[in-house]
Write a structure and sequence with these properties.
Order of helices and strands: HHHHHHHHHHHEEHHH
Shape: globular
Radius of gyration: 17 Å
Structural class: mainly alpha
Number of domains: 2
Strand content: under 5%
Largest sheet: 2 strands, antiparallel
Number of strands: 2
Helix content: 55-70%
Length: about 210
Amino acid sequence: MSSIFLDLSLILVVALFSSGAMAKSVGTQSEAQPWRLQEYLVSAEKSPAQLLAAAEKLFDRSAVEASRKNPALAHAWQDRLAMLSALSQIFDPSMEGASKPYFARASKILETAMLKDPALLVRDGAVESMRRINRMRPGYISRWQSSLEAAFLSEKNHAEGEGYFIRETILSAMREASIRPGSKVMNAARGDSNGRVRARLDEWNTSTF
């Protein structure tokens, strides 16, 4: 469980920094909202079925839409981010006997969140969870290749030719899995005005590919 917290530390720093403006706009209610990762991780280990039910409710389209409109639900993106990290715990090989039946449902939530969630940090968190899963189960991320490429090209993840940090995360995830992006992604990355995105292409300049 400790590795999950270490992997998530960078996301937390970015999330807390990015949420500053939001916290000011919604008051102390948002500031006092607890970080629920520990709670979700316990649920992942004790009752994967219960965690999946909670995740499906949290990521239900109507629930996500409500969180965008209701200031009282301004913290909901944090819950979704924590949930995605907890879902990766279901894929831990030590839990396979109890959790394997839930792989497909968890995978669908991660994939949908990466492609459709309105919060950039949540979309990026879905990719980070895929990276964790791939470290536990090498090669597993290839199941998401087409969706990773779709997310890279999505208008949600770049503006005026400059890619957001999720593009870097996607390329890193694919490189770790020894997956070479398709031509559309490679061309988009080469033309990205974000130098950090372009720099990721150097990782494919090896004999491996």
